[in-house]
Cysteine-rich with EGF-like domain protein 2 (Ceratosolen solmsi marchali), 381 residues
Amino acid sequence: MKIIYIATHTVLFLLLYSPVSSGSDKTSGHKNSEENKNMILPPCAACKILVDSFKKGIEKTSRGKFEGGDSAWEEDKLGSYKTSEVRLIEIQEGLCKDVEYGETQCHSLADDIETFIEEWWFTHQNNNLDLFDFLCIQKAKKCCPKNQYGPNCEKCSGYPDNVCNSNGKCKGAGTRKGNGKCTCDNGYTGEYCFECANGFYTSYKDEKKLLCSSCHRACKFTCLGGSSKDCHECNPGWKYIDGKGCFDVDECIEIKNSCPDNHFCINNEGNFSCIVCDKACNGCLGDGPDMCDQCTEGFEKKGSLCINKDLLGRKTQENWTRYITYFGLAVATGIILERSVYAASIIGLFIAIYISVSEYVIAHSGIEDSLPNLSIIDNIS
């Protein structure tokens, strides 16, 4: 009965909740799809998407109709279909349907410039006039040529080959937007990106080219070169020494109580780090149970190490067990001696060798100090 009860409730759970979850996922996916479809893109970006979709349609119809695709094959085989109204209609039927973002905007733009599309198709297609240049730049006026900007497609500073001295980008370049001002790359500044920004120095410069390189990390704001000697001023964590430049400050020495309790200090270039002490320590000078100021509760100093008291207790028990074993072997030898001197002599010899070898190994491995071996220490640290 219990099995039937569980099975019944499992089936009910799946029937009640699975459709809801599935429906929720579908609703979420549908919502995202609608958001992507209705997304509004910048005018030039929308025109580029329309042109890309149209070009995909050209490729699709050439291959789908005649199983070809390359331009030379089209010239020989497509004939009148290549520039026919039938093919244009087929392309327009699939136009914008492959667009991931801004499909609605793409369809709207296609309707607005339909006459321009037809003009290119029937008049300029065979003249090698680029579709993007014709539609988006010349007719729809949504974009500008490369490195031109604004409503009238004005030329960016340094047009055509050295825009913003090749150290930045022109705002609005390629669109009918923007003001043409230079947005400088990292390390460059100035109206035309022909100056080095703070933290950089001029490593090369002529009338047309400027190369800026990073100052040393010790430098604050400006420098004359790439070493710590070239700083005009030192960053925090560094100090200036006459004739030698900026040198790292060892905060671990110069700053008292630089780290909180039960941490030790590590000096880095320009700063420092605080690392928590080993769990065996109550205060420490470095990492590991051999660097403790004092042992924490539950640990005991043995030589230079703070060792877990439980381990020490177990090692003492091991030593006593070993000694009792030796004693037991000696007693057994004495009992055998009463029956057979010969047998007792042989057994006694083997026992003596066994004890000697065992103690020699223990002595030379440091175990006689009642210390755990280093592998155990590594595991508990």
User: Anything to note?
Assistant: The chain is about 45% helix and 15% strand. Residues 2-37 form the longest helix (36 residues).
